[in-house]
Amino acid sequence: MSKKRKIVAAGGVILRERSGTQQVLLIHRDRYDDWSLPKGKGEADELLPETALREITEETGVDAVLDLRLPSIRYDTSTGPKVSHYWRATVKRQRNRKPDHEVSQVKWFSIEDALARVSYEAEQDLIRRAVELPTSNVLLVVRHAKAMQRKHWTGNDQRRRLSGRGRRQAKRLTDLLAAFGVERLVSSSSERCVQTLLPYAKGAKLEVETVDALTEEAGSKDPKAVRKYMAKLLSGLDRPTAVCGHRPILPDMYAGLGIKSAPMVVAEVRGLHVVGGDVVTTETFKPTA
């Protein structure tokens, strides 16, 4: 007997405040006769945060921004084991969604009413956790996308550009950065790092702040400066931020953040969720391009 393939889904606990009261958004599905959190299965080459945002929009009409990573829920279905991943989320905008065969109602509830109405105990626990956890920020650490090979580059190495694959990877990163509502971009001043963040910068109308200390050359000579800069970035984190660096200096970047380093492939992103200047949880996003 062949083993059933695991089903992977993603969604969110969407919160807002109205008249001093916190509310959570639930959906009603007639075919299950339940009230639940919005979620759904991923599509090909889609990262989990992208799945969560797409499913939230499709099922509720809400364009959201993800916040803190929440626990995953695992359970068995008739078609195989299923795991659903969740983030706390806030609303950018909401459009009216007409009822259909998948979702018959979309409704905001007070936290107390939502806990009483939601059909699944595990989702009750997610709502409680989303409400109880303090405000957080996200810091996305990015290893630059695939660059041209050194042997094919004759100029200053800091001017070495992205390859065709790297440009595709940089373009794909825009959806991930947008999922977390990144509002600040910091990069090594080397061209391949700046180019990695540039597609998102153009779309979001942001400037890429360049830091010489984060270049491969300067960082290798003065790793203490790398650690010092990253510690300062973390302590002053006041908005969702992405910072792009190079493989040789990633260990010192992580040392400055006070967390254990991990190998990263080109265009990989490590999301750090920060509360009160401390990293409380991390997650990793591998490139699909």
UniProtKB/TrEMBL annotation:
Residues 5-131 form the Nudix hydrolase domain. It comes from the Bacteria. The keyword Hydrolase applies. One of its GO terms (biological process) is AMP biosynthetic process. PROSITE patterns: NUDIX, NUDIX_BOX. InterPro entries: His_Pase_superF_clade-1, His_PPase_superfam, NUDIX_hydrolase-like_dom_sf, NUDIX_hydrolase_CS, NUDIX_hydrolase_dom, Nudix_hydrolase_domain. GO terms for molecular function: bis(5'-nucleosyl)-tetraphosphatase (asymmetrical) activity. SMART domains: PGAM (SM00855). Keywords: Hydrolase. PANTHER family: BIS(5'-NUCLEOSYL)-TETRAPHOSPHATASE [ASYMMETRICAL] (PTHR21340:SF0), DIADENOSINE 5,5-P1,P4-TETRAPHOSPHATE PYROPHOSPHOHYDROLASE MUTT (PTHR21340). This is NUDIX hydrolase. It comes from Arachnia propionica. The lineage of its organism: Bacteria, Bacillati, Actinomycetota, Actinomycetes, Propionibacteriales.
